[in-house]
Amino acid sequence: MTQQATLTVAELLLRSLHDLDAYRDDDWNHQVVELRQELLRLQTSDSETLGKVVTASAAIQQLLLELAVLPSAGRPRQTIIDAVAWVLDNTPDIAMARKVGVSTESLRHRLSILPGEWWWGGAVADGQSMPFGRAPHWRNLATSAGRVDDDTEGANQSAPCLVSSAGRYVWSERPFIFAFDGDGGLEVDGQDVVLGQEGTTLASAFRAAASRHFPASGRTPAEQMFTAPQYNTWIEMPFHPTQQAVLDYARGVIDAGFPPGLIMIDDRWSVDYGTWAFDRARFPQPAEMTRQLHEMGFSIMLWLVPFLSPDSENSRMAARNGWLITGPDHRPVVREWWNGYSTVLDLTHPEAGAWLRRVLADLRAVDGVDGFKFDAGDLRDYRPDDVTVAGDGAVGQCEAWARLGTEFGFNEMRACWKMGGQPLAQRLHDKPAVWGYGGLGSLIPEAIAQGLIGHPFNCPDMIGGGDLAYFTDGAPLDQELFVRFAQCSALFPMMQFSLAPWRVLDNRHLAAVLAAVRTRQAVLPDLRALFNHAARTGEPILRPLAYHFPGYEHVQDQFLLGEEMLCAPVLESGATTRHVALPPGRWRRGDGSILEGPADLALQVSLESLPWWRRIRA
Question: 224-303+352-383+403-536: which CATH architecture?
Answer without folding.
Answer: Alpha-Beta Barrel (3.20)
